[in-house]
Each structure stands twice: as C-alpha cells, then as structure tokens.
Design a protein that fits this description.
alpha/beta; Rossmann fold; 2 domains; seven-stranded mixed β-sheet; globular
Amino acid sequence: MIYLYYCQQMSKLANSIAKEQNYIRLGEIQWDEFKDGFPNLRVKNVEAVRNKDIVFLASFDAPKEIFKQLAIIYEIPRFAVRSLKIVLPFYPTGTMESVTEEGEIATAATLARMISAIPNTMSGPTQIIIYDIHALQQRFYFSDSIIPRLETAIPILKNRIRSLDNAAIAFPDEGAWKRFGAMFSEYSLITCHKIRKNGKRIVTIKEGDPSGKHVIIVDDLVMTGGTLLECKKVLFARGASKVSAYVTHGVFPQASWTKFIEADFSFFWMTDSCPRTVEAIQTKVPFEVLSLSGSISEIILKTYQA
C-alpha cells in the first residue's frame, strides 16, 4: 500500500490518481490557519504510515503555498516512513534559472536548495518528480540529498492528436525544438525563430512548411502567450489550414489566458499541472485539459516495483 498525500489545490488530481490504481490510499492533512495567517497543519493518522511508502502531490503556485507544503514535506520523513516521493508537476521558478548581470537572483536554484533540505527517509533520499522542467540543467541545482527525476507529458499529447488529419508540429524557438523535436519524428516539423526588436516580439519561420497543415505549436509552458500568438499569425500567413497549441504548464499569470478565447486557435491543450489555471479555463473554448493522472500513477507504480 502506498499513501498519497496532497495539497488542497491538487485534490482533484490526487483523487483521479487514486482511482487509477487500488494500491494507492489517500492520506489526510489538516490545512488550517492561525489568526495571524500562519499555517496550522497536522498530518492525520501518522501511525498508519510508519514503514510505508509515501507520495506527496505538490503545487508550489504561490510563495505562501511553498511554505505550507514544505512544512509538511519536511516532517513526513520523521514519521519513520520507508520512502518519500514528491510529485511537483510544475517547477514554478524554472524560468529564472540563470542571471545575466550581478545582483540578479536565480530563484530556481533557491527553491532547489529549499527542497534539498528534506530529511532522508528510512531507505534514503527523497525523490522529486517534475514534468517538463523549463531548463534541463536545473537538475544540477539539487544537492545529493535529493534525487530529481525529470519526466515529460508529451506522450499524453501524442495520444490526443493521433487521430488528427494532416497534423504538423511547430516549435516557437530553437530551444523548444532541441527539447522536444526528437519526440515527434513521425510528424512534419516546423521551427520558428523569435527575436525582440525595439521592444517588439518578431517571429519568423526558420525551417519547415506549414502549408495546408493543421499545425500544433508545442512548448513547455506559457506565461502571457505573446509568442504563441505571433507564431499563429506567421503560420496562417504561410498557409496553415488550422493552428492549435500545446503547453505542459498553462501558467497564464493575471488571467492572460483570455487572449486566446477568440484568437482562432482550433485547440489549446495543457495538462492539469497548474490547478488554478485549470479551474479558470475548464469550460472555456478552445482550451482542453489533458490530465497527468494516468502518467503519475504509472510512474508511482513502476518506481515502487523497481
């Protein structure tokens, strides 16, 4: 039996994961606050998890949430559990992974240091599972006291688009092509090139022909969506019959997803890695959520069978 604990905003995904396999039992946490706003937390029925394998489904979508969840995560190994795996689908500071001038802070490294402080369990270091992290080199930000495992949600997308006619895959820049290009060898590929000139984003097609194709733009995450909108324009201008988009992480700060409601995208797919966004767009066209539940439950099973 594996116990799955989860933060409040991940409750829907946690329940879906538990339904995938009967070997997973949901744990219960009290998520209250004191009058001063600081968390009042309690892991219930801790006697049952001694010498058991534990998974914690996390969402660090706000600094306050990070503090609450790390308080729980740090304590779980002290309950004499056999092992602990953290599933953090979206690594939120991933876009700030390097600095270009003195004084800037690479907060991706800061968060990695905080996660690396998780105590060992009875069987050794905790493992953290992250989907489509923005920069692969961020695995080296973690210390040897934590084991990062980087996964991809691209197979979920490929299963969804298998039945689409005349599909091609486009990448908004060379970075996305280098990251995901080899995963789409059976499709026609289109690579875009992005530059900024006088504060304006300019996108051109560097390689590939979108003419007559249903082109799906693929990237790891979206923030404001400006690049995707510019890619769509140039793809239609070069003869694409339809344009859709996929991102693993639909971050969309300040409700920037509203730009896509009437933007002529046939589909906009994303996973449920960012639960607040999913809650906002779940009934909106052209958005469609591809759940990570099956992938996560399979990873958990294979990990504990290994």
